[in-house]
Amino acid sequence: MEIITSTSNQIARYVRSLGAKKARDASRTFIVEGQKFVDEIGDPSQIELVVASQSFVVANDLAKYSGIQLHIASDRVFASISDVQQPQGVLAVVQQREYAINDMLRAKTPLVLLLEDIQDPGNLGTILRIAHGLGACGIVLSPGCADIYNPKVVRSSAGSIFHVPFAVSSLHNAVAKLKSHGLRIFAAKAEAEHALHQLDFQPPTAFIIGNEARGLSDEIAVLADDGVCIPIKSESLNASVACGILVYEAARQRNFLG
User: Fold this and answer.
1) Where are the extended beta strands (E) located within the chain?
2) Distance CA 77, CA 83 (A)
3) What is the pTM of this model?
4) CATH superfamily assigned to domain 3-95
5) pLDDT digits (tens, 9 = 90+) for 140-190
6) CATH of domain 101-253
């Protein structure tokens, strides 16, 4: 197999371009980097191509990539297309997912997260991990959220992006749809009257989490059936931490944790 030795090679340029949202949107693909995360993809038909470094090829069996378009690049070229400081030697270009809010409502008692303008890719990736690990059925992102296919989001999700349905939607529309399916909507607000341990999250539930700097806007908060706060002694919590505490409490109440 021919080895890619030039950073201007067509494949190298294509992969590098996917660091930009415009290119990801145009191609409807995104990058997954690292062997563990590539293995999480599951369905090989969703993989457009795989690029491996020469040193990765020497140390690993590539049989699992049989039937997939595979390219080998010199370590120098691979480093030029990698999004991390210490490349792990393999990445995949993957088809973007297509979900709808209905995909989040198939469980008997859905638990859905609604995110208003979450900007930090690390927070968004962590929220995907929380949803996956604690049994949330899906995530709805407002149009002002960070791009869920940003490489930092994908990396922070640690593979959970392949296990949790997500959709971008107006939160007004999403709330209306969830309410029509019987979900009770809780707005996470520091000044809310009820603390999370005072509320029942066992029925179908959705939490609305606000922007890291501004919190939840009044415009969106009023759409909720009730507010919920997390009693703490500091001024505020990181958005993903707050999300984790709320979802953990819901999982505890539902005996999801055993």
Assistant:
1) 3-4, 29-33, 47-53, 70-73, 90-95, 111-115, 138-141, 166-168, 184-188, 205-209, 226-228
2) 12
3) 0.93
4) Ribosomal protein L30/S12 (3.30.1330.30)
5) 999 999 999 999 999 999 999 999 999 999 999 999 999 999 999 999 998
6) 3.40.1280.10
